[in-house]
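question for whoever is on the cluster today: can someone run the full assembly for these? two chains, 738 residues total. i dont have access anymore since they changed the login thing
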Amino acid sequence: MPAIRKNSFAARLVDNSKNYLFIIPAVTLFSIFYVYPFYEIFNLSLHQWNGISPHRTFVGFANFQELFSDKIWWQSMWHAGFITIIALTLQNALAFMLALACDRQIRLKKFYRVVFFIPPVLSEIVVGLIWQWILYAGMQSGEHIGLLNYLLVKTGWPQLVHNWLSDPKTALACIAVVHCWKGFGWGFIMLLAGLQTIDGQLYEAAKVDGAGSWNQFRHITIPMMVPVLLVVMILTVLGSMQVFILILSMVGQGLGYHTEVPVTRILDAMIGTNRFGYACAMSVTFGAILIGISAFFKILSNRMKQA
Amino acid sequence: MRKLLGIFLCLLMVVSAGCAPKQQDANTITIWHWMTDRHKAFEALAQKYEAQTGVKVKIELYAPSDAYTQKVIASAQAHVLPDIYGILDKKEVFASFIESGFVADLTDEFKKNDSEWENSLFAKALDVNRFSDGNIYKIKPGIYGVPLDVTNIQMLYNKKMLEKAGIKTPPKTFEEFLSDTQALKRIGLAGLVSGWGEQWMINCFASNYAFNIMGEQKVMATYKGEVPYTDPDWIKVFNIFATLAKEGALAEGVVTKPNKFAEQDFALERAAFAFNGSWCVNVYNDMNPDLAYGVMLPPAVSTAFPMKIWGGAGSSFVVNKDSSRKDKAIAFLKWLTADEQQQYLAQQTKNLPSNKKALSSIPQILSDFAAVMDQTTHPSIWEYNEDPWVAEKFAKGIQSIIIGEKTPEEVAKEVQTAKQQELEKAKSKTN
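^ ran it for u. tokens below:
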């Protein structure tokens, strides 16, 4: 009996080893490219280091302590939050409306799909530079060069002419709007794909039961789209919180701290002030916040599915 | 099972081989740089050098400069730096590169044959690459880099626009400058444009006036923590920006403009004055070859001390200490900074050459830039440098003054608070 047991244990071990062997490449790659960098970032966040010197000084959680009392960091977090709120509402509402429109039998449907997907495929730098020119406040030969101010003057609204990107009251809102313009195409494509998976028979049945367009939308489209909407929302939050190239290309390092977002603060700590340890502490904290937000949406999604 | 293990090991070998550093030909040296405007000229010179010596020079361009800086830092951490590269950062970072063994000491090479190489170059340009006795970074005294060109940052004026506003000569004093910008404003022309969306440009302009108002000693004393930023002289420095903004002497949106956009504004005649470096000659020539402009020192606000401008080495190359082709790299840099090659670079790229003899072949506007090299200074040669975090507070504070959000006094107080915090941190470290 013991021999059999031993044999079966050995057999199981060999069998399991085979299974583990299959996952070793994936685990190795995951460890090299995800686990180790994350460990290294966390490890660096506990040190003071300028990024080049061979000497690192262990400072424990001092970087985190400093970060929690860093007003500019939390201000930058609020700026990213503001952009995210605008994106969650304006960008996703626009994407949903356009997806609904393109889901119907309209002319030039394919053309619109392509047009709406152009902004997301453009480089953020290019988008930033284009909008920088549109919102430009300078003049030449007595005329506004920036497209928006030029149009405002030409259409009889000269009182609305403004220095859009150099006024703290409008700069962040302008960046948020441009971010929405650049990003709505992703939401549009995903929501359109979601809409096309809804069975047409449901609408037919609802029509037979006397449901109007609004009721069809409320009782069929919305409930069926909840999982897709949640995915779009999570991606919007993660994308908007991490926006920075657009900011750098539109306003550079300008306007005091009014256009700072977490990633620009991390970059600045890393490259501008050579505080790698502090930058890593920022990255770890920021990563934890993003994971927290994603987890919140996941829980919300599960609850909504159960409901 | 064995088969699977074999496949896995093969894969591992392939991955490991991919991660190993590339073996390079002993007769090929590699240079990394960020200078898009000089890339073609470098390549032409590399070909010429190969024809003359048989040594191949691989020129690799990584732009923009921010991306280049990140690449160099990451490569230093991975010990995969090329034979020759440039360090685009503060002296403190340069010192860290040396301390970490990434930069070769070139002093002996410069001193060979009665300092022939050293004497052929502008002393101001070499100073940026030099660590003197008792330097605060505790680096062994010596010369660690080779300047390719010299540069300085001054003000430029558009001759046609000034003429249009009835201004006959460029302003010499700050009052004159303000009244000139008023005259320009009256005919709808913008005054001063600069890339003040980049913090270093603001700090540069402010430090010019700090030197002019209180002199170098007091500025250094501030960096050391002996004079507070709330000192009346510093308030005067901050007030310059408040006055420029209040009088409408600045072009619209100057605080959010990267220098590239500011260069475009001046080249396309959207502003009459610019604050920019001597590299602009090449940039303006590309953007508007017909632009008629002159160069002037920033108009002084005080007669107490001379106006000092930033200048010295423009771009420098260093040699990788670990390179097996170090001698070849040094020989190439010697050749690159010799008269003939420097003249070629100056003509092709319209930058001020670092070789003194090559100055004879430069355009007039560059000669005007070169005329005030004696008045140049640079953070890299200062005894002390401001802490980067305080410098950020300083620049951001000035941006706040320009947009009318804060007063000079408020900014001075905030910068001093940051300075105090940094001083306390430094004190606790030494304890």
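summary bc i know u wont read the tokens: Chain A has a mean pLDDT of 90. The two ends of chain A are 54 Å apart (CA to CA).
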